Structures are given as C-alpha cells and as structure tokens.
Amino acid sequence: MSLPVISNQPPPHLVADFFDPTLGTSLAPRASSPSSSSRQSTRVQEQMGFVLHRYPYRETSLIIEGFSRMYGRIALIAKGAKRPHSALRGVLQHFQPLSFSWSGKAEIRTLTRAEWVGGMRPLDGDALLCGFYLNELLIRFCAREDACPKLFDHYVLTLERLGQMGASAAPILRSFEYALLRETGHVAQVHRLTRTQETVTPEAQYVFDPEKGTRLAQPEDPISWPKVDGQTLLDIESDYYQRPATRVQSKHLLRFLLHYHLGGEALKTRQILSDLHTL
Known about the structure:
Layout: H1 12-15, H2 36-40, E1 43-57, E2 61-68, E3 72-78, E4 98-103, E5 108-116, H3 125-141, H4 149-162, H5 169-183, E6 205-209, E7 213-216, E8 228-229, H6 230-237, H7 244-261, H8 268-277
Parallel strand pairs: 3-5
Antiparallel strand pairs: 1-2, 1-4, 2-3, 4-5, 6-7, 6-8
Helix pairs in contact: 3-5, 3-8, 4-5, 5-7, 6-7
C-alpha cells in the first residue's frame, strides 16, 4: 500500500536548533531504566506512537525519538530512511499517529517497520510551533522507556485541539503543561494544601512551593514565586481556562514550575514562539 507523504515541517531556519541531538537524559524522578520485560523483549510489534524528534545518522539513516503509549519515550534507528526509495522516507513525520515495530536490546533499538495510521489534521502556523513545544517538553521531562499512558493520551488530545480551526493555543498549552508535570511526578494536585490536604479557598491567595506544594501566600515568600488565587488553582485542576485571571495566573505559575524543574534552562521552542509574537 502506498503511504501518503505528509509535508507538515516548519521552515528549517526556525526549528533546526529546537533540540540537542545528543539529548538523552531526563528530569523525571521516576526510574529511567527499562522494565525487566522491556529489556528481555527483542521484538515489539505495531505500537502506536509519534515522532518527537529526528536527526541524521551516518549517510542514509535517521535516529528517531519516538513516544509510544505502552513503552513511553523510545530511541530508534531507522536504517536507510534517507534513501530515495525507502518505505520509511515519507512516513516518519511529526504529529501524525504511526504504528511502530522495532527489535533489539540496546538503548537505541532498530526500527523494523513504520506505518501511517492517519486520522489527525496536520498542524500549521502557530499550532505547528506549539506542537514542537510539546515535543521538546516530552523529551526534556520523560525518561526513556518509562510508560506514561495518561500523558500519551493527553498528548493526542492536545494535538487534536491544536488542529481545530480557530483554536486558542494558550489554554491548550496550559492544560498539557499541567498534565506533564502531574504525570511525570513533579507536581501533585495544586488545589489541595500539602500539609492538610484541604481544598483551597477560591478567594484566598496561594503560592506553590516547587518542593513542598501548595500553601497560603506569606509576605516572606520569594518574589519569584507567583501568587495565585485559589480559584485559579481550582480551575487548573478542572482543566478550565476561560476565566481571564486564570489564564494569566496559570501561565505564570506553570512557566515558573517548568523553569524550576528544568534547572533554569530555557526551552528553545518557547523562545521562538515569543520572538515571533514580538515582531
């Protein structure tokens, strides 16, 4: 069967440096080593996943950073994928659901088959750049071969939301950022006080200590810690970003938490989005 070629790549001068090709570490606190069953498996068949990043390997091959529901983030070598008549050449595109098969026990497995399974609208414009922002977050926060099916499902939902005509990107990105922090173990429920587990009061002001969680704001809190309304925390937990104050405060809070857990290192895609919007 002839597979379609999906041309949804952004201008090369915008995304050439989105990711460091050598990036293989993760900030996730959960175990980064593969499970025993994954280590023993030499052949995996037809796993749904996405291409997060790809870069050249030798003259004719590619290294793929993939994201699958059952195996999490995986590194695959696509041998001969750059050859003109390779069956993989037009398939390994970003933001389209693929069926992956691979083999091997090394850290970088060998991709044996990839098929386009379709069903998603291609991203373009700002939505496309937002998609690369999601991919950078997944590469930076997810350990390799650490399955995270809830986060995978949220990634699929986020791509579908971004693909809708006229969709506002900001609440979609906030929703994904919070799901990422939750599912990688960096943040617990923001709407509950860490010490007592009581639900926050909508009218009160809070801070989120990145090491200890939510508590009432105090005058001596670091100036870099965003102060947010209890209602904002309730809205974040409910995935509701229509309230204007929630949009502003959730952006500051989630950006602060991502920045903290990245050790202060900037995200390249976010900088590009910011630069484009200030032209």
